[in-house]
Amino acid sequence: MQYLKNTVTLKLDAGLCNGCGMCVNVCPHEVFxxxxxxxxxxxxxxCMECGAxxxxxxxxxxxxxSGVGCAAGIIKGILNNSEPSCDCSGVNKNDNSNCx
Amino acid sequence: xxxxxxxxxxxxxxxxxxxxxxxxxxxxxxGTIKVRWGFGRDNYTVLPGLYKVGKPDGxxxxxxxxxxxxxxxxxxRSLDSLDAWxxxxxxxxxxxxxxxxxGTFGTSNLVKSIKNxxxxxxxxxxxxxxxxxxxxxxxxxxxxxxxxxxxxxGPVHAKDIRTFVNSGYKATPAMRTISFxxxxxxxxxxxxxxxxxxxxxxxxxxxxxxxxxxxxxxIFTRMVENSMFPLINIAGAYLAGxxxxxIFLPLIPFRAFAxxxxxxxxxxxxxxxxxxxxxxxxxxxxxxxxxGIASFLTMNxxxxxxxxxxxxxxxxxxxxxxxxxxxxxxxxxxFIIYKLK
Lengths: 100, 341
Description:
The complex is a heterodimer.
Chain A: E1 11-12, H1 22-26, E2 32-35, E3 38-41, H2 52-55, E4 62-63, H3 71-79
Antiparallel strand pairs in A: 1-4, 2-3
Chain B: E1 19-20, H1 26-36, E2 49-53, E3 61-66, H2 69-78, E4 84-89, H3 96-102, H4 107-116, E5 127-130, H5 140-147, E6 150-153, H6 161-166, H7 173-176, H8 182-195, H9 197-210, E7 213-214, E8 217-218, H10 220-226, H11 228-247, H12 257-275, H13 280-300, H14 310-340
Parallel strand pairs in B: 1-2, 3-4, 5-6
Antiparallel strand pairs in B: 2-4, 7-8
Helix pairs in contact in B: 4-5, 8-11, 9-11, 11-12, 11-13, 12-13, 13-14
């Protein structure tokens, strides 16, 4: 399943990549592959911007504006004038939000 | 030996490390069913700390889990017949992926847990197995820097853990990827259905009253006579947006969830008009309202899906919210004008 085309903010600077392959390990949508000792993006539209790759990239070759793709969270963010946040159960005890 | 223990009564302090069974008991399954239907969902926790499964020693693997009982249960069940340590970190009772997105299942919390429990006094090796989805909050190289423990990212699903361990900590691409098959989507439907129950009741009450409207005022007997068509439409739109669209998600054309929901709303409206009689303006009015409601509800399913991106949802919402408001508002105006004419 793929979401909207040409929208995600994922960027890879292959020049900084040391080929450790951590991005391949952590990506839940097989966005990366290692070819010629460098990471390569296979299909960027598979990306859901979870941010695991960028967080685990020691050489800082990956950037992505990560966050939860959750409409209710975005609405809540706009209403509270804050970053999008879906209050998953347990954080806000009275909120039955279905997020995540 | 009876392993059916109240996990909350366990106090993992000092060197008395509680042992938990890798077999789930009936109360565990019953708890899962209740949580899936939204009961006690916010308070289904395990006390953070170190646990034993089987008889682990200094060479046994350490698996990290959130202190959400569903996460913990899935993990310990998958460790069946393995001897292992389970390090439960405090995520406020939130599952791994969600907590990782919020940072509670994150580098600093994991480092703190490893240090507080003195993990290196229990195991001689320096590796911990973190569920792959935890990588959203955990930077493996920082954990290594701060504790000396190497993070190995395990498979997405706990059920693959044994295969993963037996193959020398190698996950196949299938174990690394998260799919969103129909049974995963169906599992989310009960909680989603209850999620908007009050708004649904308010909408139903509003249309019950509006059905009794005419130029002379609002009369109760007319509410009873005329409310069937609008009420059944509202209920249908709710089901279209929360049940139909999520279940048939990949089969419905369009990538934007708001469009998938709008189309489900149109289809439901079609069914309503086949089976129930109403004047044409009222059919049109309810159709527009159905489209607005179903589109909005399905758009909210982006929060439950496992492949939508933040920038994508923002992009979709920019046109979808005005569209949904306009559709429902025009429908409502037509409905009221027709009643008053």
